[in-house]
Amino acid sequence: MDTFPFVVIEGLDGSGKTTLRKGLFRLFDNLYGVTPLSVLTTNWLDPEVAADLVDGKYAPTEANRDRYLAALRADKQATVERLIAPSLPLRPVIADRWLLSELAFFQVKHGQAPADTYAELAGAIDLVPDLTLILEAATSTSMQRAASRGAGDAVRDDWDVVDVQTSVRATYQAITGNPVAFPKIGPTVRIDAAQPRADVLADAWRALLERGLTPDPEGSIR
Ligand SMILES: Nc1ncnc2c1ncn2[C@@H]1O[C@H](COP(=O)(O)OP(=O)(O)OP(=O)(O)O)[C@@H](O)[C@H]1O
Ligand SMILES: [Mg+2]
């Protein structure tokens, strides 16, 4: 490894992505003195496409679908070029959702096959995550958790419902079961998200250790 890792966290709404991201952040920061950069699946770097991102995500229609996909493509490309790639020589990057979530959204909301969405997005993403941690829990567990959060964490009526979350989950499985067709997803590992928070974090850290994705004790890269 000649740079720090690009780690992605995926999982259903409420499965514990933000919680795990914060835990990994503290481990890197406190144990090794390297402060990760956290990015989201959309980072709003291009004002030209901001309106298309909002419309396409919160009011998806057939009419705005292609504009949304083009906007995601522009945002992902800018995120890689301006945030992720420049950071990796200095610090790990942890993304809260990435390509897998976009493929699932287009399948579930638009009936668009992941291979078609992938064909539109992959060309713009010139970087493969070193590891994607997929938080796996029963749909009911993640939905209960999502609903139990305080105000300020949005729960969307057209998204945070059992049948939608169940098909998101099925789409994740179909995509990760066919890695050859989706090379920009990169390696994935499933983490049991029903465990206590500390055990989820320990499993994730172990997965990073096993793949040589943690710094040496002085905080430099291996
Ligand atoms: N392992 C766990 N055990 C019990 N509760 C948890 C666990 N992980 C997270 N939680 C709690 O569940 C709720 C949802 O967690 P979190 O916000 O991390 O999920 P998320 O995947 O980021 O959700 P979203 O996709 O909506 O952003 C929070 O209140 C969090 O404290
Ligand atoms: Mg979150």
TrEMBL record:
Gene3D superfamilies: P-loop containing nucleotide triphosphate hydrolases. GO terms for molecular function: kinase activity. InterPro entries: P-loop_NTPase, Thymidylate_kin-like_dom. Keywords: Kinase, Transferase. It holds the Pfam family Thymidylate_kin. Residues 9-176 form the Thymidylate kinase-like domain. This is Thymidylate kinase. The lineage of its organism: Bacteria, Bacillati, Actinomycetota, Actinomycetes, Kitasatosporales.
